[in-house]
Every structure is written in structure tokens, then in C-alpha cells.
Fold this protein.
Amino acid sequence: MITLYHCADARSFRALWALEEVGEPYELKLLPFPPRFLAREYLQINPLGTIPYLIDSETRMTESAAICQYLAERYAGPPLAVTRDEPGYGVYLNALHMGEATLTFPQTLVLRYGFLEAPEKRLPQVASDYKRWTLARMKGLETMLAGAEYSAAARFTVADISVGYAIMLARIIGMKDEIPPSLNVYYERLSARPSFQRAKAAQAGGPASVLDGILS
Ligand SMILES: N[C@@H](CCC(=O)N[C@@H](CS)C(=O)NCC(=O)O)C(=O)O
């Protein structure tokens, strides 16, 4: 049985959503955020202290986009994954990694220096610079999508989970009205999927998320 360590609405949501898409049974371990401080024993399991952490037999994984790729390729295949023989393969991998590396990473600086640090340690300049950075990348995403329903191969894949989570986080931290409207339409299409709804339901009732307090 697959085990996933998760904090509500954090990047591990990608893994939870992907698990719901593939339909493989799993055990969900809900942690308070940040587990490094609020669940110290978790460091014995994942020395990085970060979530997600996925265990599947001998396999241990800590990167949300890689977990999506792993679950799709190991347990589902097409249509959820794009195979290397398909024309959309490169675009698929690009979107899968872009969701985390380009679209989510700058948001963590907005989150940390705009919301999570104690007020005296906040850095408004960093928060506003990385907010602008994020919005510029979101504009680039809009151009890349060019009105398509999905990010690759003209169908829903785990690349959409990766990119969709980045938009979900942007909306949580107050950028909903600043990101291009077409990205909100794209996100609403993704989040209407039963798998997304099941993932949200699965995390309900766990420890409160640090993101709860900053919902805009
Ligand atoms: N690149 C990794 C980042 C993992 C990560 O940093 N997760 C954050 C939550 S969104 C975390 O665990 N932060 C808590 C900490 O650093 O103590 C991924 O995509 O999964």
C-alpha cells in the first residue's frame, strides 16, 4: 500500500490529487505545517522534513512533480501520462516541471516573507518582487497555453496537476484577480474533476494548515 505524508493544501496536494486520479489505494498521513517544527518525529522518516513524502515498497520520494510522473507512469500510463513516442512528450515534461520549478518556487518567497515569518522578520520588498516574478511567469504560461484546455497532448495529464497546483497556491495567497483570467478558467476546469474534489475531501479534518489563515 502506498503511503503519503501530506499537509493540507501544500505541494503534497499534487501527490494526493495524482493518487486520486490513478485510483491506487493509499494511506494518507496528515501532518501539521511545518512538520519540521510541529511534528519533530517526522524527521526520522524524512530527513528533509518537507512534504510530500511518498513510500511505495522500496521507493521513497520527496519531489511533488516527480511523484506525479511516477504514479502516472507506474500505475496509469496514457491518458494520464504522455509516452515518449507521442508528439506531446516534450511539452508534457516541460509543463510537469515548470509547475514546480518556475511557477511555484517564487511563490514560496511571497508566502514566507509576506505571510509566514514573524512580522519583524518579514521582507516586504522580497515578497513584492517575487509576486511580480510569479505574475510575469503566469503571463508566460498563458501565452504558452494559448487557450488550450490542457497543458500538453490535448488531454488532462499529470502535467496539469503540477501546473494547476501552482495556480491553486497563487489563488490561496491572494493573486486570483491578478493572474490572467484564462488561467482561472483553466484552473476551474481542472478543479472540477472528481479526483480534485476527492483529494480536498481526503485532507479535510486533519491538522489545520498554515494556509488557512491567509485564504483570500
Ligand atoms: N520541490 C519540492 C518542495 C517540497 C517542499 O519544500 N515542501 C514544503 C511545503 S509546500 C515544505 O515541506 N516546507 C516545510 C519546510 O521546509 O519545513 C516539491 O515539489 O515537493
